[in-house]
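Before the break, one more example. Copy the sequence into your notebook; we will annotate it together after we see the structure.
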Amino acid sequence: MHPMEKKMKKVELVFVSMPGVGHLVSTIEFAKTLINRCDHLFITIIVMKIPTIPFLNPYVQSIAASQPNIHFIHLPDQVDGLPPLTHAAKSIQSYYCAVIDCYKLYVKKIISDVTSAGSVAGIVLDLFCGSLADIGSELSIPSFVFFTSGALFLSFLLHLPARHQLVGSQFAYSDPDMLVPGFVNLVPPSSLPEPCYNDVGGYAAYLKIAKGLMAAKGILVNTFTELESHALESLNNGEKNPNVYAVGPVLHLKSQPHPQMNHGRWETIKNWLDQQPDESVVFLCFGSAGFLTLPQVNEMALGLEQSGHRFLWSLRVPPAKNEEFKDAEEMLPEGFMGRIQGRGMVCGWAPQVEVLAHKAIGGFVSHCGWNSVLESLWYGVPTASLPLYAEQAINAFITVKELGLAVNLKMDYRPNRDVVTADEVKRALSCVMEADSEVRKKVKNMSEMARNAVKEGGSSFSAVSQFINDLVGSSS
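Here is what the structure looks like once it is written out:
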């Protein structure tokens, strides 16, 4: 422990978080990291509830009960001016930004109240909440952003305003490949996040997020130096960029309770995995909001069957299909379950972290959400990329092309446009499960680096120390 972390006076931090699992859990885990390193630190987390995002109430309650230095304040469910849900159908990112703007006065009032009770050293905002940075300016409190994705995606967002000054409009699929600071390769338009092409709010929301990032005093990124060294060097050399702290991997190494999961089902899955040889099973899972179309389920099933590999498939029925299918198995080709009996298991929701940690898992077919990328690296499991939504397409490009830590199933996949064939699935599974492949070796090596980064003396451990010490300077 750094000596300054124990000698400092009481420090108060206020976090403002989105409620989604990929944001709130990482935010809380980072808050826990800070208070574990500094017993003079007290953290207030302001949590908003958004109609389109399930709220993790049991998890939040458990943290509130077990962490006396973390205090939660919940914003009201309804406030004046909230945009209609039809806004979300046009652009979910724009909808989030509009909701956050409606809560601005409430957030300012809470931070003012916390400040009146004691000194607040800083405000830490979710990446979607950057528009709230001027609250810090008005109250003379430095604002930081906790960025739940990686440094290369951050580089892309910070490049958007400069690109917009030159072009003045959203992206087009016909655009040429783009040079982005921090990237080694040119970035093809097919690998950009969907909002980049959205002219009814999505692109504007990304520009707004980028502006909020630039207004911050510092950005805390859920990555580590050894993983994205080139991007981090570029970010820290940018004259106009805020300070960037690589503080990851910030992980919650226990899956969240889920209404579709019961203890008995996990025991069944675990017992089956326990009977499989080490690193022999492919795990297929597509995140908290990832669903496959029926044609894609059919091709995925045929590819798995033809590959001959053992597999565990977390297959869930899309919400719109609930009336058509009672359970996931009804989506599968006729006779599939009988033909793969013994070497494959199909389940609904599965606890991803616990599955990736199991010694039987040798490969991971993933949507490339950033938390999933970090979890697979932590456990040394190579990934085949099939992005579905949000920034996952650029994450897939990053892990496959920039970092060489994943196999390309289809890194520019668009669920409403594409169907990956059974042959493509079979090829990708063969690559990801190859025992002595370069990808597997690199992932195993990066797993060790990830664990060393957060140990005392590691790169991320030192970055957290630097952040704490910067807070001490700003609050003294």
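The chain has a mean pLDDT of 92. Residues 284 and 400 are 17 Å apart (CA to CA). Try to locate both features in your own notes.
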